[in-house]
Amino acid sequence: MSDERDPPLPGLWLAEEGPEQDVVVSSRMRLARNVDGYHFRSRFRDGEGERLEQYLHGVLTEVDPSFTYLSLADTPQTLCEVLFERHIVSQEHVTAQHPRGVAYTNDGTTSVMVNEEDHLRIQVFGPGLDLETLVANVDDLDDRIGERVDYSFTPRHGYLTSCPTNTGTGLRVSVMLHLPALSYRPDNSRPGTQGIVKVHNAAQKLGLAVRGMHGESSRAEGDFYQISNQVTLGRPSSQAIGDLLDALPQVLLYEREIRAALLKDDRTRIEDTVWRAWAVLTNARQITSAEALSLLSSLRLGVCVEMIDGVGLGTIHRLMIAMRPGHLQRRAGSELKPEDRDIVRATLIRDTLLGTDGN
Amino acid sequence: MSDERDPPLPGLWLAEEGPEQDVVVSSRMRLARNVDGYHFRSRFRDGEGERLEQYLHGVLTEVDPSFTYLSLADTPQTLCEVLFERHIVSQEHVTAQHPRGVAYTNDGTTSVMVNEEDHLRIQVFGPGLDLETLVANVDDLDDRIGERVDYSFTPRHGYLTSCPTNTGTGLRVSVMLHLPALSYRPDNSRPGTQGIVKVHNAAQKLGLAVRGMHGESSRAEGDFYQISNQVTLGRPSSQAIGDLLDALPQVLLYEREIRAALLKDDRTRIEDTVWRAWAVLTNARQITSAEALSLLSSLRLGVCVEMIDGVGLGTIHRLMIAMRPGHLQRRAGSELKPEDRDIVRATLIRDTLLGTDGN
Question: Rg for chain B (alpha carbons), in Å?
Answer without folding.
Answer: 21
